Amino acid sequence: ARQAFKEEKEEVDKDLQHVGAVAMESVHHDLLFGLIQDHKDEVGEDEAPAELDAEEVGKTERRLQKMGFTPKQVKDAMDEAQTADPNAVLDHLVLHTPEELLPNAFKERKQPPPEEVLKASTRQPLTQPQQGAGARAPSAFLPQPVIMHPGTKEWKADPAEVAREEAARAAQAAPQAKGGVVGVVKPLNSAEEKKVGKLVAWGFDRATCIAALKHTVGDVDKAVLRLLAGVYPSHLKGPVPEGAEEHDEEELEELRFDERTALESIFGEENFRELWQQVGEVLGCEVTIEVQVANVRGKSKMTVLVRYDPPCQYPFSPPYLLVRCEALPGAQTLKISRALCQKAEVMVNGKPGEPMLYDLVEWLRTTVEKEAAAAKEKEREKKAAADRAAAAEAKKGQAQVKSKLDAVEEFAAKKVSRDAFAAQAERTTARLSKQETLEKQLEEARQKAMQARAVEKEREERGERGTVRVQRARACLGSQCR
Prior knowledge:
Layout: H1 2-15, H2 26-43, H3 54-66, H4 71-81, H5 86-96, H6 114-120, H7 159-173, H8 190-200, H9 206-215, H10 220-229, H11 249-267, E1 272-278, E2 281-292, E3 299-307, E4 320-324, H12 330-350, H13 357-481
Antiparallel strand pairs: 1-2, 2-3, 3-4
Helix pairs in contact: 3-4, 4-5, 8-9, 9-10
């Protein structure tokens, strides 16, 4: 019996070694062990454990694995706790898991010792610039600080003093008359610019984002929630309708958890993400889809942000919704977000208490793609009309060109006829000129012939005269001879 008692005590000590160390006397230690042993005997440790619901076990496993625990840790905790209740299993995991094996969100954050906190405190006003190159300037989103020193009474604002300060700040912020000095706005540092950039990326204008951050003292999550509340059109009831029935938070979380599990299985881990406020508290999710956007080549990624921060009663009231798409301008994404909010309120009024996120996402996909198809068809019709107008203009131009060609051909024909007449005239002139030349040559030949005949006649006359002379000479000679 002593050996069995010793073994049981060693097992209990082994189970308690991961819990924070507790200093107690040995008598108290034995008393505590006895109480634990009596409790085991009353419960009936040797009885067979009750079978757990497989569906509840699966839900608890998925829920705790998303918190960062391994499947083996979750299974061992459920086996040891003999329950599938997520809260009981989570308590068991936190108490019995070594700190180095816990997820980062569950690890204890070390706080500075009290003496360091007191040493770091100062009686200098926070609004004065601190000395040193690494000093940080006060945030532009923070209000004017109220300095409370140890030992002073609680400060209470005087209404008259508050009114005077607000009037002075308003006068300082308002620009003076033309030619005067304009109020200087404090510039934002890099961290504040990063916060503003996160909100601007969702489609809100910069001034609205800065105003929301100032209202929430630089809290991005609260600023997002404030901006989301303004997405709903004023004529809708919104996520927090007046006089709405309040439902049990565990019931709401059960419905939301089932819906998130279904969405993750449908869209996949790469397109689905839960939004955690703190460990074990989910405030919403993000679903990313690929859609064909109007006037954009190829498909674009579109993200739907869903938030149901308290006191939102989703799915008995519509959630906070916001759409983001880098391929579209911010004004257009806000317009799509407002249309999605209207659709969510219609669905809640028709079937309150039923999850609607999948139907909303599919409605968004169908609506955006229909608008893209309509824009594409409109662009096609516009292009066809432009082509028809260009064809009519080309036809008109062809008619004008044809008329010009006809005129050119007619002119060319006339020119050819004139050229032919000129050629014929030239040929006639040449023929006449040749004829005149021939006539001149003939006349010259006639004159030469006449001259030749005259010369021949003269020669004949001379010959006849010579013959007469010869005959006379012969007659004279003969007479003389006789």
